[in-house]
Amino acid sequence: MGQSGKQGVTAHAVGWLVVVVAALGLTVSIYGFFRKSRFSAALWFCLLVLLSLLLVPAPIPGYPGELAPAFLVALFESFVQPDGKPMVALRLLGVGLIAAVVLAGAIIWLMKAWFGSRREPPIERRLPPRRTAPTRRPSPKETARHQQRP
To answer: How many angstroms separate the CA atoms of 117 and 90, rounded?
Structure first.
């Protein structure tokens, strides 16, 4: 097989594909678990931040030009490597966190501004009307007794 200038799918690309699919699967499953929550804006905010944190890339020390998810590089360099250098990955993770919070907040704010909020009415308007206790009509004997009193 000769090289015709086209590169095939590399192991690095397959690895990133697995990371993206796993991150999307995690966020979709968390959304499915909490989708009926009252706090939909907070849920979307957390999901967007989680997704972006899982997908922030960082360079792998010792492999120039190769990238991996920053949280994995930070964990590996901190706990597995004897002379690991996790600071680059942690800095990128911090910048990614700040960017994710700002971006998720802006997206949610724009969605609420364009489509309006789905605020629930106060509890009084959501409950069925209160029924009063049924009143008992006095019997004819009781009304006659009431009328006979001086």
So the answer is: 36
Q: What pTM value is reported for the model?
A: 0.63
Token reading at 24: 């999307």
pLDDT tens digits in sequence order for the chain, 150 residues long? 444 445 667 888 898 999 999 999 999 999 999 888 777 778 888 898 899 889 999 998 888 888 999 999 999 998 888 888 889 999 999 999 999 999 888 988 888 778 765 565 555 566 666 677 767 777 777 777 767 665
Cα 116 from chain centroid (whole Å): 19
With 0-12 CB in 10 A as exposed, 13-18 as middle and 19+ as buried, what is 104? buried
